[in-house]
Amino acid sequence: MRRVYMDANATTPLLPEVVEAMRPYWTEHFGNASSIHQHGQQARTAVDRGRETMARFFNCHDAEVVFNSGGTEGDNTAIFGLLHPGDHFITTSIEHSAILEAAKRMARFGVETTFVAPQPSGLIDPNDILRAIRPETRLISVMLANNETGVLQPIEEIGKIAAATGAFFHIDAVQGAGKIEFDVRRFGCHLCSISAHKMHGPKGIGAMFVRKGTPVDPLLVDGSHERRQRAGTENVAGIVGLAKAAELAMHSLDDGTIYRLAQMRDRLEAGVLQLPGTGVNGVDPDGKPVPRAANTTNIWFDNLEGEALVIALDMKGVSVSGGSACHSGATEPSHVLMAMGLDKNRARASLRFSLLKTATDANVDHVLQVVPAAVEHLRALSPVAAGTLG
Ligand SMILES: Cc1ncc(COP(=O)(O)O)c(C=O)c1O
After folding, report:
1. What distance in angstroms lies between residue 174's CA and the mean position of ligand 1's atoms?
2. Ligand 1: distance of its center to the CA of 203 in Å?
3. Ligand 1 pocket by C-beta < 6 Å: which residues?
4. pLDDT for the residue numbered 381
5. Ligand 1 pocket check: which of 11, 96, 334, 336 to mutate, most ligand atoms within 8 Å of Cβ?
6. Which of 60, 189, 192, 326 is the catalytic position?
7. Which of 187, 232, 324, 369 has a Cα-to-Cα distance from 363 of 20 to 30 A?
8. 39-79 pLDDT, tens per residue?
């Protein structure tokens, strides 16, 4: 059976160029980048080159790039590394759990958090961030692109608010990296977290932009790695893979790949919306989609259960994600969709289609072929449709 993967926001496969770039650093160039002999120096050179590439990617100085294990670590570092008892923290209610759970933990240490809610479109209003500012606000953290809806947040405006009020600004750019033009100076942030596995690089490696002079305490400590900002023997192959993925991502923005990806996403979306009782999560009051990452659409389907549709599509060879998450065995509707004001049934009956940048028109055709039959079949069976489920 043909299989089509449309869950790129969960993770992406490594591009062949990334695998090739990494391969020597698992075998002949296996050295520890801290060793002074030649094996070590080869590894050090690879780390330095990776840092130069990432500095180009972020548009920052080499010394402002810190390699880490990915998005969760970057998000946690911003919060645990900058906030102290008595500080106030502003974030949004649609962030990834790496931010939300870290904020919850800081409550135990006397840090109060304001969770700014999005508008029904999924956009955060910068004025709501401004209204939340207090004299003791030390950090603002807002994501670049939402992982569930793809909605791109007005981070430049939020960056200006942070600059005007003297707060530090962290961006969780895990889902935006590789999908839009990237420039931390333009974004106006002090910290910015990215992760390789969301942009066709390996899992377990990421990087953080740390603006010079930002007093962020490291999460992990030992010796002198990463200018004392992140302890642990460098993951040399991972760093090489991240840098190669970032280089390819920069090309994809320049050579029209991302533009074509948006066109494919739009065709997929328009095709699915032909079905009655469907709509996009992430639209303005006139029903027009707000700015979104090129690869993502999140669609609600009335009168069915999203989890059943995910399973039905999986059986037809299509991998997508639902608008719900399994916490301790119970299926909870997505906190993002709920924060946007969807009711529980509609939030549960929403699906995220997120295309790989290697997606083809044939992939879209296949999905458009199987979705209508799966939806009609489930609607015929659904207790929601029959009105027997609250
Ligand atoms: C917006 C966002 N932030 C953070 C993360 C966590 O990144 P990682 O998987 O690299 O820890 C994810 C992963 O799903 C994400 O989508």
Report:
1. 6
2. 11
3. 70-72, 75, 96, 98, 143, 147, 172, 174-175, 195, 206
4. 86
5. 96
6. 326
7. 324
8. 999 999 999 999 999 999 999 999 999 999 999 999 999 99
The percentage of the chain sitting over the pLDDT mark of 70, rounded to a whole number, equals: 96
Residue nearest to atom 4 of ligand 1 (CA): 71
Please give the span between the terminal C-alpha atoms of the chain, in angstroms, as a whole number.
36
pLDDT band at 386 (very low <50, low <70, confident <90, very high): low
Mean of the per-residue pLDDT values of the chain: 95
| Residue from 68, 93, 198, 208 whose mutation best tests the ligand 1 pocket (most atoms within 8 A of CB) | 198
Partners of residue 145 on adjacent β-strands = 152
Which residue puts its alpha carbon closest to atom 9 of ligand 1?
71
Average of pLDDT values for 319-346? 84
Does the active-site annotation cover 326? yes
pTM score over 0.85: yes
The 10s digit of each residue's pLDDT in 163-212 is 999 999 999 999 999 999 999 999 999 999 999 999 999 999 999 999 99
Per-residue model confidence (pLDDT) at position 223? 74
Distance 1 CA to ligand 1 centre (A): 30
Mutate to test the pocket of ligand 1, among 69, 73, 94, 175 (most ligand atoms within 8 A of CB): 175
At 364-378, the pLDDT tens digits run 999 999 999 999 999
User: Whose C-alpha lies nearest to ligand 1, atom 16?
Assistant: 147
Spatial strand order of the sheet with 191-195 comes to 65-68, 206-210, 191-195, 168-172, 137-143, 88-92, 112-116
The confidence band for 97, taking pLDDT boundaries of 50, 70 and 90, is very high
**What tokens does 40 get?**
């070590």
